[in-house]
Specification:
The protein is α/β, with parallel strands linked by helices. Helices cover about 55% and strands about 15% of the residues. The protein is built from 14 helices and nine strands. It is globular, with a radius of gyration of 20 Å. The N and C termini lie far apart (about 55 Å).
Length: about 290
């Protein structure tokens, strides 16, 4: 059985690594905050003092990191992943990044004789824990086949979208629609309440119409209970919307709704909602009425 390196043990990465560990994989782990690896270490994972050490000891390395900047730093810094990774090993980047960045990472990986897969996931904390992630993969078919046993443990479906960058492209579109849908629904709720409609009635009617995104039914409890424990932190959807806007610029596409939505989340972040769930944008918009 291959040795798997896991770098990035936040909300998503820790749960993905735990599921691999439960299936008997030997894990080499690294995270900027070591405490986040405690449960994995108690169950037999090996701690690496740097990303370089992960690369030296692993056959496949999975990264699940917050931003493109962090991915690049982990890859290239002194004692970074690409300074020690074994030749012909496979780097599976599950971080959400923009397509042009994914292509840049593939080029860097090739210079170090490493194979690279662009494999972001659709799903939040619950799906990560329950092995229900959707893997959106770009890269070589044979590399995907090698990683498929891992994807099947961590998720429920794998979609091969083409060459490296296409997984990233699909992921930012999904999060773009998620962010836009959230703001549109939050505005409708607030406006409905202002016109004297009860929130329960608004939920019951709006969620049963075809004009509301189905995901809004899943987040109803958060909005009703005011519980914004993060499944998907607000600061990261704001980051993903920014990545979408970069891609729109690179492709010469006008996206006025995207940019307006991005700025709503940016304002919510500035007002202290960064670490709460992205659905807390409803509370932010309520402050503005």
């Amino acid at each position: 059985m291959k040795t798997i390196g896991c770098i990035g043990l936040g909300i998503m990465g820790s749960r993905m690594a735990t599921n691999l560990q439960k299936e008997g994989y030997e894990l080499i782990v690294y995270n900027r905050t070591k405490e986040k690896a405690d449960d994995l270490l108690k169950n037999g994972a090996v701690w690496a003092n740097s990303a370089k050490k992960v690369g030296e000891k692993s056959d496949i390395v999975i990264t699940m990191l917050s931003t493109p900047e962090v991915v690049k730093k982990i890859a290239l810094e002194e004692n970074g992943l690409l300074t020690g990774i074994k030749k012909n090993s496979l780097w599976v980047n599950c971080s959400t990044v923009n397509p042009s960045f994914a292509t840049e990472m593939e080029v860097l990986a090739k210079k170090h004789h490493v194979r690279y897969l662009d494999a972001p996931v659709a799903g939040t904390k619950g799906p990560a824990e329950n092995r229900e992630l959707l893997f959106l993969v770009g890269g070589n078919k044979h590399d995907i086949e090698e990683a498929t046993p891992l994807f099947e443990i961590m998720g429920k479906k794998i979609v091969h979208l083409g060459e490296v960058s296409k997984g990233a492209a699909m992921k930012i579109l999904i999060n773009q629609l998620l962010g836009q849908s959230m703001v549109a629904f939050a505005e409708a709720l607030i406006m409905g309440e202002a016109m004297g409609l009860k929130k329960e009635v608004l939920f019951n009617v709006l969620l049963n119409t075809p004009v509301v995104a189905p995901v809004m039914s899943a987040i109803r409890p958060k909005l009703e209970n005011g519980n914004y424990e993060p499944n998907f932190p607000l600061q990261w959807i704001q980051k993903d919307l920014h990545l979408s806007s970069i891609s729109a610029y690179e492709n010469g596409i006008a996206t006025p709704n995207l940019n307006a939505t991005k700025e709503v989340f940016a304002q919510a972040k500035q007002h202290g909602f960064a670490d709460q769930d992205f659905t807390a944008v409803y509370e932010f918009l309520n402050l503005k009425k």
